[in-house]
């Protein structure tokens, strides 16, 4: 088996072996945006979206996504998440979502943070599409990660 491949010599896929990896505190932060219009932003601020509290539901869906990442991304290890949160920043024509995830594990939580932020943004789209079908989800990226053998990473702006 190649150290860098997720396939054995027969071409079968497998999960990376983390048995010998050190348990460390690990954090990942991912963010993304949904571009919309001022009408949608005002409806969200005034809780006038017919499906309910958009940011509250999006926050819960993002956290649920974090906790279920291994069920969605085939080669992700199931992790015991110790902390997950979704924050939002509203501007005139967009909403930025930020997902922070923490664990004490043998592998990182980058995929969990990316899955959480993406699902939160998809939930906003779903809840607001009756007002604006032209919304765009964009700029999804890993902003920060710490812990593990590779240490700290901070995305350059």
Write a brief caption for the model:
The protein has 157 residues and is α+β, with helices and mostly antiparallel strands. It has 4 helices and 5 strands.
Distance between the termini: 38 Å
Q: How helical, in percent, are the residues? A: 25-40%
Strand content: 25-35%
The tally of beta strands, per DSSP, is 5
Q: What's the overall average pLDDT, rounded? A: 91
Low-confidence stretches: none
Order of helices and strands: EHHHEEHEE
**Structural class designation:** alpha+beta
SS field, number of helical segments: 4
Radius of gyration: 18 Å
Strand order of the largest sheet: 2-3-1-4-5
Major β-sheet, in short?
A: 5 strands, antiparallel
Shape estimate: elongated
What descriptors fit this protein?
about 160 residues; elongated; 4 helices; alpha+beta; 5-stranded antiparallel β-sheet; about 30% helix
Textual characterization of the structure:
The protein is elongated. α2 packs antiparallel against α4. By secondary structure, the protein is α+β, with helices and mostly antiparallel strands. The chain has 4 helices and 5 strands.
Helix and strand arrangement:
Elements: E1 24-35, H1 38-45, H2 54-67, H3 69-72, E2 83-90, E3 94-105, H4 110-128, E4 136-146, E5 153-154
Antiparallel strand pairs: 1-3, 1-4, 2-3, 4-5
